Here is the input.
Amino acid sequence: MAKVNLKTVELILALRGSGISDHGVLSAIETTPRELFVSPEFSDQAWEDRALPIACGQTISQPMVVGQMTEALCLTGREKVLEVGTGSGYQCAILSKLARRVYTIERYRTLLEEAKRRFSALKLRNIVPRLGDGGQGWPEQDSFDRIIMTAAAEKPPPALLAQLRDHGLMVAPIGSSGRQKLTVYRRDGDVFHEHTLDKVRFVPLLPGIARTL
Ligand code: SAH
Here is the structure.
């Protein structure tokens, strides 16, 4: 008989209750062991619907927000995705189950190396991680079908909008600190249509590679 974890069931029910209905998204969250992405002292809270601290003063996003952002990307399994802000690697692991390939950029080497170890342990082989400033995009790559920013900016970085393919979608927390809104951009030629989802609070998108660690 399959092992059912009560905390997992409760979280999935809570996400459904808050309006996340995409079966693929819910199933990716259900099958991704969040306890592996947080430090051991927080593992008992890993299945609670809340953001938790990770190394380098950063945070792993709240599952509800991960669900909302992932759902907003409308993934079919065929997409090439760019994630800016690898952090713990949790959001990236979810994306890797729903897209063809995920390119992910992090500015802290420590976080990136930990995330890479998690991807290997979970045998997630369609992820391409790199150290860098994600606000500059991924210049060696052509365009991306989807882009997700997991750090907040006042305005969408032009380099990212430029790398979004025609009819592609980008989701990002946009606004000044404490007042960001999840914003979805859809490219239509040179025009970007946008609509906003919930208010959110993310760590800021910072320029350059981190000097410490
Ligand atoms: N997606 C992550 C959330 C991490 S928090 C997860 O699931 O755990 C946001 C991350 O964005 C932090 O790790 C931060 O270091 C990173 N970040 C901030 N500015 C960045 C930039 N310009 N380029 C790449 N990463 C950046």
